[in-house]
Amino acid sequence: MKTVGVIAEYNPFHNGHKHQLDKIKEITHSDYCIVIMSGDFVQRGEPALIDKYSRTKMALLNGADLVLELPVYYATSSAENFAAGAIALLDRLGIVNSICFGSECGDLSVLSTFAKVFADESDAFSEVLRQNLRDGLSYPVARNNALTSVHKELTEYTDVLSSPNNILGIEYMKSLYRRNSKIIPFTNLRVGGSYHDTNFVKSMSSATAIRHTLEQMDNLLLIANQVPSSVFQILEKHFRVNCPIYPQDISLPLKYKLLQHSKEGYTEFADVSADLSDKIQKQLELFTSFPNFCDSLKSKDMTYTRISRCLLHILLNIKRDSLQTFIKDDFVYYARILGLKQSSTEILNAIKKNATIPLLPKLADAENILSNTPYPEHALEMLNSDIFAAHVYDSVATNKFHTYFPNEYRRQIVKIR
């Protein structure tokens, strides 16, 4: 049995994702595909357009065999931690032979070169990078400048680092390299619209363009040819019932959390520096919405996306010290099942036999299962963070659409034939 892993958000699932899942078993000669998917909040520092169970069903209907949740501590983190957490989860399953990811570059050797440079950071590179950051440059710019200064042989390829999927691909490979993992990486060239495009490109537009169109036009029919028919049916069923959820929809709970910690500041939360904490405190009275507050806080050395992640960490109670503890313990403590194909039970049996972490099919059994792991308190803290994030998301949807609150403990994993 050969198994390929895919790391995704599917926010929402679109034709480009379908194209990838159609190709990867052929590319990697795999029998099964395991998807590691972000939950209800995504790496950009925003709520997902539609809940994780609906997105799980989209994936299962279009080529995935098993979907596992990426813990929220990594799903909302930097590209480095996002990738490291997902790779650790795949690696600890013990049955994944390969991973396949889309990239704008499409050249595995180029991405591999960058991955090794970043994994084995030289003293010279580290010093130039630190100096660039002290000079007030944002991390992406500071890293590019350090590369062109120390690794002149890579200067002609630095445009690779301007594309989000390339960056994630490099981070996946860096994590594999650091773990000395036996998982083999593959990449396929991204097709259709680019990651940041807000306009449609025939029938393969980006998730950004799909979300932007829905937010601006509030007309689901406009995206009908951009997603598989099975996905459109799911979106149609849930549209204006519990989706779409946009960044501004979390404004009120975020402001409440910011007010709650306004006196002591926010440095206990992951990625929030003392300078950013001070800035939030000083500008809190200007808060009108989550997106507008991100705009008002961004600066030369802090991008909008980095700030949105920091604010999300505050909202979701994602702590700096806990993140460092989880990383030290090897990132993940469990594999939580969001959904599976009933015909793919062979995967579950193989994972149970080979994994170094337990499978969690039911929350009701989680405490007993995790109590027998090496770090039970840390494992429960991570799981409770996932549950809390789901409840925050569902509360926002409940408030927006005046529907019932789906308690995470009563949710069933998605099963399809």
Short description:
With 417 residues, the chain is an alpha/beta fold. It has helices at residues 15-28, 52-60, 72-75, 79-93, 108-119, 123-134, 139-150, 164-179, 207-217, 229-238, 251-260, 274-283, 290-297, 304-315, 320-328, 345-354, 366-370, 376-401, and strands at residues 3-8, 32-38, 41-42, 46-47, 66-70, 98-103, 184-189, 335-341, 359-360, 414-416.
What is the CATH architecture annotation of the largest domain? 3-Layer(aba) Sandwich
CATH class wording of the largest domain: Alpha Beta
When the domains are counted, the total is 3
Structural class, by secondary structure, is alpha/beta
| Share of helix, binned | 40-55%
How would you describe this protein?
It contains 18 helices and ten strands. The protein has helices at 15-28, 52-60, 72-75, 79-93, 108-119, 123-134, 139-150, 164-179, 207-217, 229-238, 251-260, 274-283, 290-297, 304-315, 320-328, 345-354, 366-370, 376-401; strands at 3-8, 32-38, 41-42, 46-47, 66-70, 98-103, 184-189, 335-341, 359-360, 414-416. Strands 1, 2, 5, 6, 7, 8, 9 and 10 form an eight-stranded mixed beta sheet that branches. Strands 3-4 form a two-stranded antiparallel sheet. The protein has 417 residues and is of the alpha/beta class. The mean pLDDT is 93. The protein is globular and about 55 Å long.
